[in-house]
C-alpha cells in the first residue's frame, strides 16, 4: 500500500530508520510530505500480519539517456523479518508500478558496504551499470 496519510507515513518510520538511522521520528512525516510536494516522492509499504515489514521510497524521473524511470531512493526490509520474501515482493511491486507508469527501468543505488543487499539485488535481476560519484558542497 502507498503510505499517504500522516498515520500511514508514521507507521513506516521504524523500518525506514533501520536503513536511515539519521532520521528523526519527530521530523519524518513532515520530511516525507515535503519530498512528496517538491519531488513527487512516494512511499510504498508492505504489511504482513498488520505490521510494516518492508518499505520503499521512490520517485518517477525522466532522464535524457534512458527516458522515464522509477528511481528507488530507499528499500529496506525489517531486520526481524528478512529472508521471508518481503523484499522480493516489494521489489516486484515496484517493477509493476514502473510498467504501469510507462517507465523503461527501475534504478537504485546501494552503498558499496551493503553486501547482503547486493546479493539480494543480483538475485532479483538487477545489475551494476555504472559508478555513482558525489561531492559534498556544504561546509562541515
State the main characteristics.
140 residues; alpha+beta; Aminopeptidase; four-stranded mixed sheet; transferase; acyltransferase; GNAT_dom; Bact_Acetyltransf
Question: What is the H/E string?
Answer: HHHEEEHEH
CATH class: Alpha Beta
User: Mean pLDDT across all residues, rounded?
Assistant: 90
CATH topology: Aminopeptidase
Q: Number of DSSP helices?
A: 5
Contiguous low-pLDDT stretches (5 residues minimum) are none
Strand content: 25-35%
* Number of E-state strands: 4
**Cα gyration radius (Å):** 15 Å
Indicate how many domains the architecture comprises.
1
* Secondary-structure content class: alpha+beta
Spatial order of strands in the largest sheet: 1-2-3-4
CATH H-tier superfamily: Gcn5-related N-acetyltransferase (GNAT)
The shape is globular
Q: Largest sheet, if any?
A: 4 strands, mixed
What is the name of the CATH architecture? 3-Layer(aba) Sandwich
Fraction in helix: 25-40%
Describe this structure in words.
With 140 residues, the chain is of the alpha+beta class. It has one domain: Aminopeptidase. It has a four-stranded mixed sheet with strand order 1-2-3-4. β1 and β2 form a beta hairpin. InterPro entries: Acyl_CoA_acyltransferase, Bact_Acetyltransf, GNAT_dom. This is GNAT superfamily N-acetyltransferase. Keywords: Acyltransferase, Transferase.
Short description:
The chain has 140 residues and is α+β, with helices and mostly antiparallel strands. The chain is built from 5 helices and 4 strands. It has a single domain, classed as Gcn5-related N-acetyltransferase (GNAT) (Aminopeptidase).
Amino acid at each position: 500500500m502507498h503510505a499517504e496519510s500522516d498515520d500511514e507515513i508514521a507507521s513506516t518510520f521504524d523500518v525506514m530508520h533501520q536503513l536511515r538511522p539519521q532520521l528523526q521520528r519527530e521530523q519524518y512525516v513532515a520530511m516525507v510530505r515535503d519530498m512528496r510536494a517538491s519531488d513527487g516522492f512516494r512511499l510504498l509499504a508492505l504489511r504482513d500480519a498488520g505490521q510494516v515489514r518492508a518499505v520503499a521510497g521512490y520517485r518517477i524521473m525522466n532522464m535524457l539517456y534512458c527516458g522515464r524511470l522509477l528511481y528507488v531512493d530507499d528499500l529496506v526490509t525489517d531486520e526481524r523479518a528478512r529472508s521471508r520474501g518481503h523484499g522480493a515482493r516489494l521489489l516486484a511491486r515496484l517493477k509493476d508500478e514502473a510498467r504501469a507508469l510507462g517507465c523503461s527501468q527501475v534504478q537504485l543505488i546501494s552503498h558499496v558496504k551493503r553486501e547482503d543487499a547486493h546479493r539480494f539485488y543480483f538475485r532479483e535481476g538487477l545489475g551494476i551499470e555504472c559508478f555513482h560519484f558525489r561531492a559534498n558542497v556544504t561546509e562541515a
